[in-house]
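The authors assume throughout that readers already know how a fold can be written as discrete tokens. A single example would do more here than another paragraph of explanation. An entry of this sort, consisting of the sequence and the corresponding backbone structure tokens, reads as follows:
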Amino acid sequence: MVGKIPENVLKRSVLREIKNNNKDVITGASFGEDCAVLNLSDYGPTDDKYFETGSAAAAGEGLTESKIALVKACNNLYAGGFIPEAATLSIALSESFEEENLKLLMRELNGTAKKEGITIVGGHTFVSRNVSNGCIVNVNALGKRAAGFEKEPIKAGYKIIASKWIGIEGSYILTSEYKSEIEERFRKDFTDTLLKNIEYIGVGNEAREAIRLKAVAMKDVSEHGIFGALYELAERAKCGVEVDLKAIPVRQDVIEIGNFFDINPYEMKSSGMLLMVAKDGEAFVEGLKNSGIEAAVIGNFTENNDKAVINGEEKRFLEKIKQDAIYKIKTVRKGD
């Protein structure tokens, strides 16, 4: 029925699937509680009292979008120099959404939260006539400032470092949605490899190391891809950027997926890649590699306002991207 889900459904299909993964959660998700209580007294040597939220949302029938949303909310915190502690969920269900699917959704979300080292501490689950099919999941992740992280103004000459590779999230989504079509062109092991990209969407490992190595700033590469992230980072810094296209980490299979769908993989969702800013780029990359994290210096900030990407003798200038590349595919396919 439309409205708040019944108590028995809430208890057996939502609350029963949520486990407390954090000793700092005093009062978590439970029936009758209107808010969560967390112990935030232990902030480490900096005695920093800042607390931050990161948000993401997902809509659809599958579990994958919701799990990605939870990870992306955590990524937002990591990119700001915060360590995720907990999350709250707001879940709007269609009238046709089955309770068994709700239970599975919560089980998968709790598993993702455990992997991220956080606890789902509360939220709201309801049925709405405004949701025509599937569900809509809104995630708010909560985190505290990492000890030792001091965000500084970005200056000309500072280096830009990228972890992992472009197109992680976008190539996974496209392969999930168009798997049979892709396998008509490529071998099955090609799609199997791309489907494993969901394992790389989190940026917690590189963010923690970047904080230890005294990163000046960080930026999660998400919607609009690396070109969009570089544009936003330059705008935030009030500096220009000069980036070597050939230095940006990219896998051949991601390039081939871009070619297959006739889209630019550099403008495609890339959650899992983290941009980090450092004064000494080579030393920073060496520190990351010593911890088993692949990364590369891809460019630097400049005194002018140009946002330039260099590809050999060619130069292009970044502009604000209006739409992520994968939505262009969805629009065309829907029109067909």
